[in-house]
Write a structure and sequence with these properties.
Blueprint lengths: L3 E4 L5 H10 L1 E4 L5 H6 L1 H6 L2 E4 L6 H5 L6 E4 L9 H7 L2 E3 L6 H16 L2 H9 L21 E4 L3 H14 L3 E4 L5 H7 L2 E2 L2 H7 L2 E4 L13 H6 L5 E4 L8 H10 L4 E4 L19 E3 L8 H19 L15
Parallel strand pairs: 1-2, 1-3, 3-4, 4-5, 6-7, 6-9, 7-8, 9-10, 10-11, 11-12
Helix pairs in contact: 1-13, 6-8, 8-9
The chain binds 2-keto-D-gluconic acid.
The site of 2-keto-D-gluconic acid has 9 residues, from loops.
């Protein structure tokens, strides 16, 4: 008999079929308590689950006593209570490599669009304001050869450094938990403490996972240390940044502009002050959102679940140490 799984995300047809070839699939829209209650038997029998952007906590796991593997269509896994998974011997699989280049592209897009005010001036053109040669009130600031600071030198940080160094001739500063020989050799990236990075960077780019240690890691104190001409970019997780402090820093001119793909609350509330600041480019968490990459992430997550339920966790597993 095929193992049963819960699917809580719509997948392309061919990938859905691949799942059905291996498993008995129950598809649900979300993991809300009402959904779990309505599908109690399917949840109780599920050995695997696959989806994204829904909380998987101890209360849910209580309803899923047979669960052996979870597979998220994302690199980030802050939605999961990893301790609760570990206690129950449940594997957590994620998609760390397939989205790297696409997210780095998004970060570079945020750098360029904030610096050159792409969104703002394009809107002015559409509003019919381009009536004669443009003057300084349309100008932006340079990107090439300015200093780019990266907080979090993981795969995405490295891909961003590559773009900035080779494409734009930018000196790279970085801060991470450990030195990164590849970044230093290939892109002449210079390791420095956070304060030095904040003080010396023209672009401060944050790409960190959300953990207890990174929550609100960038706040009022950090914005004060940045140049008043600095542009702040966040494309990791919203709560890494104290959003209220960011709003204050943007309003007071402590920093020049911000390019944001992630927020403390998503979707970003329509009354967020960020939306009325002209020096903010706000994107709807599109870091990995291209047709190609979202397909590849879903395909990777399907393979990950098949592997994990067959005891294969050498690759893409967050907690392989729990294997018996
Ligand atoms: C996903 C992300 O889009 O992978 C991540 O961690 O933030 C995004 O790429 C999102 O989690 C939805 O799948």
């Amino acid at each position: 008999m095929k193992p049963s799984i819960i699917l809580y995300k719509a997948l392309p047809d061919d990938l859905h079929k691949r799942l059905e070839d291996h498993f008995t699939v129950t598809q649900v829209d979300n993991l809300d308590p009402e959904t779990v209650q309505k599908n109690a038997e399917a949840f109780a029998n599920a050995e695997g689950m696959l989806g994204s952007s829904e909380k998987v906590d101890a209360a849910l796991l209580e309803k899923m006593p047979k669960l052996r593997a979870t597979s998220t269509v994302s690199v980030g896994y802050d939605q999961f209570d990893v301790d609760a998974l570990n206690e129950r011997g449940i594997f957590l699989m994620h998609t760390p490599t397939v989205l790297t280049e696409t997210v780095a592209d998004t970060m570079m897009a945020l750098v360029l669009s904030t610096a050159r005010r792409v969104v703002e001036v394009a809107e002015r053109v559409k509003a019919g304001e381009w009536k004669q040669g443009i003057g300084p009130d349309w100008f932006g600031i340079d990107v090439h050869h300015k200093t780019l600071g990266i907080i979090g030198m993981g795969r995405i940080g490295l891909a961003l450094a590559q773009r900035a160094h080779f494409g734009f001739g930018m000196p790279i500063l970085y801060n991470a938990r450990r030195h990164h020989a590849e970044a230093e050799e290939r892109f002449q990236a210079r390791y420095c403490d956070i304060d030095t990075l904040l003080q010396e960077s023209d672009y401060v780019c944050v790409v960190l996972p959300l953990t207890d240690e990174t929550h609100h890691m960038i706040g009022a104190e950090q914005f004060k240390k940045m140049k008043s001409s600095a542009i702040f970019i966040n494309a990791g997780r919203g709560p890494v940044v104290d959003e209220q402090a960011l709003i204050e820093a943007l309003k007071s001119g402590e920093i020049h502009a911000a390019g944001l793909d992630v927020f403390e609350q998503e979707p970003l509330p329509v009354d967020s002050p960020l939306l009325s600041l002209p020096n903010v480019v706000a994107l709807p968490h599109i870091g990995s959102a291209t047709h190609e990459t979202r397909y590849n992430m879903a395909a990777c997550a399907v393979d990950n679940l098949i592997d994990a339920l067959n005891g294969k966790v050498e690759k893409n597993c967050v907690n392989p140490q729990i294997a018996k």
